[in-house]
Amino acid sequence: MEQKGRAFPARLGFCFGLGWFGAGISWVHVSIADFGGLPLAGSIGLMLLLCAYLALYPALACWILVKAFQQKYWPLAIPFIWLLTEWLRSWVLTGFPWLSIGYSQIDSPLAGWMPVIGETGVSLLLVMFACALAWLIPRKNWLIAALLLITLYGGGYLTGQYQWTTPKNKQVDVVMVQGNIKQELRWVPEQDIPTMNKYRQMTEPHLDADLIIWPEAAVPKLEPMALNYLAELDQQLASQGSGLITGVVNYNFESGNAYNQLVGLGSQNGEKQGHYAYPHANRYAKHHLLPIGEFIPMEDWLRGLAPIFDLPMSSFSRGDYQQTNLTANGYRLAPAICFEIAFPRQVSANLHPYTDFILTVSNDAWFGRSHGPHQHMEIARVRAREFGLPVLRATNNGITGVIDADGRIMDQLPQFEADVLRTQVPLYKGTTPYARFGELWTIILSLLAAVLALWLPRSARFLS
């Protein structure tokens, strides 16, 4: 069996990856089948093609591991190899780091390691531990296996008891509006005004709140064509001493560039005076665009082949990697639109000592009643745990919620209902080791372990 595993490492890794992603991102099929205009066979085929592509990365990890290292040293070598291939997955073709295995530990003792080494580091601990068990258990090394288990989970539990960030003596009155607009109506021109009026009417009873959040593209009309609406809302909010952040698509008619953006309205720094004036600087443009959904690779070839390659709002321009925080009523928010929340390095690049909240907005109506929105919320919880800051998550149809600095859900709305969430969210002070150093220590330690795994067998031959 060992020889067979060594003979087909890439094939075994590919099969593992196909099962991993086939089960984990099956929700992609929902958006393709329901909104992409493809028949069932076509939507399933595209989903399997995506899963097969993603499975190449664990296949590559297994191939390198088996070919370059002796089996008894795999637990030392795997962290660096896994780090390398997962980094490639998060970067190649703009990256798709969804479903990294460390996210599964947000409710386990291993979550205690996240403020120190991040989700990436927890993923490496898991694969290292799995390889160690695969080596130890067949040889009945029960004591060492038990010690590893106690060290890994016990250390995570003890580390998790330390409060890296602590609440200030101030809470913010936060309102998030979930409009529950059907996806098939979002870009129908006749529905622009009803949608905008709905969000405004749902918000008006809460204009006395400190901070109001609308989800991604809550204003479906192009920003230059919605200036009167935004200016009126800006003045109304400011007169009540409130600030609002909303999603809106900005289209530059001169350059032809479109941006998926968030803009600030109402009071910016506590004054009762509006500050919105197109195109003011208090805005954020999405950087990590979703392939097919927000930009079309090889656009000249693929446009027109199938409805999925010609969806509304599928040709956006990219915002900068690092942008200033949004400001609303004196509060600073580090934004991440939709699946940008799955890129911890980008979130970290936009955090500053003065940042009060991490803000993520989304429209998960694309994925229906699948497990996709639940995974999205889980990713947001991990970001809160890593950086020790509350995460405000506003969505069109769920899951809208507030996550505290420990990654626990403080409050949330039910899916598929138009509703308003209003809650008190504490401000925090302090920082986490992960916020300060990122993956630095994880990279150094995993690289040293890989070097050790290469050196040990050579040194044994030399000494013998």
Automatic annotation (TrEMBL):
Subcellular location: Cell membrane
Domain CN hydrolase: 177-427
Coarse class of the protein's main subcellular location: membrane
Membrane-spanning segments: 12-32, 44-66, 73-92, 112-135, 142-160, 440-457
Keyword Transmembrane: yes
Pathway where it operates: Protein modification; lipoprotein biosynthesis (N-acyl transfer)
Keyword Transcription attached: no
GO MF annotation list: N-acyltransferase activity
GO BP annotations listed: lipoprotein biosynthetic process
Membrane topology (UniProt): Multi-pass membrane protein
UniProt cross-references to Pfam families, sorted A to Z: CN_hydrolase, LNT_N
Its EC number(s): 2.3.1.269
Function statement: Catalyzes the phospholipid dependent N-acylation of the N-terminal cysteine of apolipoprotein, the last step in lipoprotein maturation.
Record's protein name: Apolipoprotein N-acyltransferase
Annotated organism of origin: Lacimicrobium alkaliphilum
